[in-house]
Amino acid sequence: MQTEHSDLLPRYTTALIGRDAETAEIGALLTQGQRLISLVGASGAGKTRLAVDCARLYTDHFAGGSFFVSLVPIRAAGLVLATIAESLGIAPTSNQPLINTIAHSFAPQPSLLILDNIDHVIEAASDVQALVAAVPQLTVLVTSQVALNVAAETIYRVPLLSVPAADAHLSADEIMQYGAVQLFSERLRRLQPMLKFDQTQAQAIGEMCRLVQGLPLAVELVASHSRSLPPSDLVRMVRHHLRLGAAMIDKNSTMQRKEILWPVLDWCYRLLSPTLQVLFIRLGIFRGSWTLESAEAICAGIPDVPINVVEGLQTLVDKSLVQLETLPNGEQRYLMLDAVHSYAEGRLQRRREANHLQRLYSAYFTHLAESAEKPLLGAEQPLWMARLQSDIYNLRSVLDWAVEQHPATALRIAGSLWLFWFTKGYAQEARTWILQAWLREHEVEPAVRAKAAIAAGICAQYFADHADATLWYERGQALFKQVGDSFGEIRALHNLASLAYQQRYYQQAVVLGEDVVARWRAINDSSGEAAALSNLASSYTGLGRFDDAERCYQQSLQINRTIGNQVGIILCQSSRGWLACAIDNVQLAEQVLDEALNLALHNDARNLIPGVQGSLARVWYKSGQLQRAFQLLRPVFDLQAQIQNLEQSGDEMLTLAAILAEQYPTLANQALRFAEHMQDPYNQEHQPDPASLREFERIAERIGMFAGEPTPPAHLPTISEFLDLVDQTVDPRVLG
Fold first, then answer.
1. Which residue segment(s) compose the domain that 693 sits in?
2. 381 with 511, same domain?
3. According to the 3-state scheme, what is the secondary structure of 326-394?
4. Burial tier of 81 (Cβ tally within 10 Å: 0-12, 13-18, 19+)
5. Pairing of strands 332-335, 289-290
6. Does some domain include residue 165?
7. The whole model's pTM is what?
8. What confidence tens digit (pLDDT) does each residue in 194-230 have?
């Protein structure tokens, strides 16, 4: 998990105004031991901005990092932990609760986690409480309209900005001392830099701030309409509208009419042209953020109202109804603040075009997913991975709708994005979507089902569920054969060969693998050939044919470099580096694993990073750099323990045993037992490859030199308990 808070906290281009006292009070809570703090206030009160600015101001207090997780796009409390894991770059594990995986991902130093807008998934309060209890060094700062009402919660009521009293006789300078007036004036200066703030204008600003009760978002929305009007004219418009108050909101609205924000939003909405009103409402279909391209395709996709989306978005940005953000890769995306999105979505749900717009929304993201499938295997892979990651909330929204309303759409998307699910850690979600949609498989054409079956098999294999993976691969193979898709049949065979290797059926894996390589070559499919060669190399390793394995790795690597498949290079170099280390070619191992790790980090291939780190830690152990090896290996368990399969996690536990053998032989023995349980090295039916068996025996012998014969413990701890014991006992400095 990254620990640079500057990379994970939102950035703002404007200063925080009128919040000096609140910042100091919250800072005192953060630094004096309160570990679950809820910033509670009205929608639009500026809770998010206050939380982020406090995190930046007190960053030195949180050496383990400060992290921001937006809960705005999700609609189910059950997704809160998954969203935290995703935002922090943590992949789910196959055999431990997600909350444990998240808990072990935090550094030993104090860390801060901001959970923004939890009120609409308040049922997850118990999960937040459990996370705080599980991580003693973690402080959680929550923003919400309501308190969590759990033990140990400290509630901080976020006040509205100060406004001058109606009967106060104040000078212009005195009026300017109030927080809401300062915020309005600062925003107004950006629009009208030549405006003079005389007594008349200052009084008008004071009245406007009073009319919106000092609510920061309402102040900003009103100020954004001041481009051509002086405050003295604008206040008359605001006064007229807010006198009508909530009565002007649609009587069918479910919004909280007593709050000042919705009348202000309604006022802003009514000032838009009819065309802009339609665009604003239609943008409520999106979850999270969106691109200009997607807005044009979806919002202008209904021809009854001609919409210039480019100009419309710019106007909505100018009026603070839409925000524009620039991602680190330079991509520009649009989004709405939670309260504004709720207003737009509420209006959309009451329009007859809502169903039509949902179909356009689903069709767009289905096309996006299917368009990504081939580029994900080539030189454009990083661009497509980043694009899909940016649209993950939109993809989820479409899939959640499709499994109920249109299973073919769900299976088309899930089947197309198998590499994305695998690389980014969404395998469990994808597996669930496919299973749900498959309940109505009779409604879906065989070709679509075939691709989805292969994707489901990949997800099952990811979690080492070999029986289920076999079922899905064979199901996909039969469906591809039924529709006469020879390419698909090769894909199915390809994955069955990979599965045979994972199950330690090495001879079968080699026979299948050689056949698959020949088939990919026959149809000139470079991507398939490269992946098959890498799989075949691993299978050769299982038979002890190390020279053949290196030859195939080299061929796979050359093809992957030619076509620009970054994930293919990572997987190939990771396996190649592991083999080089196992046969004691430490120099080659370090070279290729360094490349694999740098590529994995650069591409945010979060599910591939732990395996590479584990292998590199083994290299450093063999080089005598035990402290360095431990410091690299320990976070692998903390962040993504056993994320891919038991055998790979067993490799990492075996490395830990080797590192601890001399200084901590008792812990080393326990780690060895975990490794033996995971790898089952002496299974006569499914023996490991010779290199793995030799590594296990050498490390077991090393441990025996320092610990003697192990004594079976009265109680075998869980992996989490064992790792906690490692943290409490091991001083890396004494490892050498």
1. 616-734
2. yes
3. ECCCCCEEEECCHHHHHHHHHHHHCCCCHHHHHHHHHHHHHHHHHHHCCHHHCCCHHHHHHHHHHCHHH
4. buried
5. antiparallel
6. no
7. 0.80
8. 777 888 888 988 988 888 888 898 888 888 877 767 8
